């Protein structure tokens, strides 16, 4: 069965987060189209979607690549992520109660984290569900767009093998999901958004002070 654009984006995003830490990943439209059994048009649409998340970029003479993380920028990347989380907390949607889709996505995130077989892959999928839940609670689209990019960059840092942050990040993330679920069931938007934007994820192990 033909994959949707969202499903193709999920696969490519996982590859970037799990394998693209230290060198460029070149994404050839033709090869991806063959792999997923689609034309180049949906592949271009997917790559454009990933460019909005700053996971890929286009370079003249090379094509579309997923660039590696820059070690010298690690601390500033984390500071930017935390600043954007704080900004998002100040921009809640006007709804009185939590939309049911938010609760659904949090439940999806928990379910994915509990799956066995490919734990890192399911972790990335779970993080994507968590991000979508959080985005539904942020009213300011500019803040939301910037946070989406910073979120995936931070995920890549947490998964980076050189910084030993994954174990700590997973424990913190599991706690975040359970507490978010409880707040979502209680139904108030601001407390839930406050908790979801207090994610530290890898803040201590190997990271130093900020």
Description:
Residues 204-210 have low confidence and may be disordered. Strands 1-3-2 form a three-stranded antiparallel beta sheet. Helix 1 packs across helix 6. The protein is globular. The chain starts with a helix and ends in a 14-residue tail after the last helix. It has helices at 5-19, 29-36, 40-52, 74-89, 100-114, 119-135, 141-159, 166-186, 189-196, and strands spanning 25-27, 57-59, 63-66. The chain contains nine helices and three strands; from the N terminus they run αβααββαααααα. It has 210 residues and is mostly helical.
How many helical stretches? 9
Strand content: under 5%
How far do the termini sit from each other? 47 Å
Largest sheet: 3 strands, antiparallel
| Principal-axes shape call | globular
- Give the strand tally: 3
Helix content: 55-70%
State the low-pLDDT regions, or none. Answer: 204-210
Mean pLDDT: 88
Structural class by secondary-structure content:
mainly alpha
User: Using only CA atoms, what is the Rg?
Assistant: 17 Å
Write a compact overview of the structure shown.
It contains nine helices and three strands.
Annotate the secondary structure layout.
Layout: H1 5-19, E1 25-27, H2 29-36, H3 40-52, E2 57-59, E3 63-66, H4 74-89, H5 100-114, H6 119-135, H7 141-159, H8 166-186, H9 189-196
Antiparallel strand pairs: 1-3, 2-3
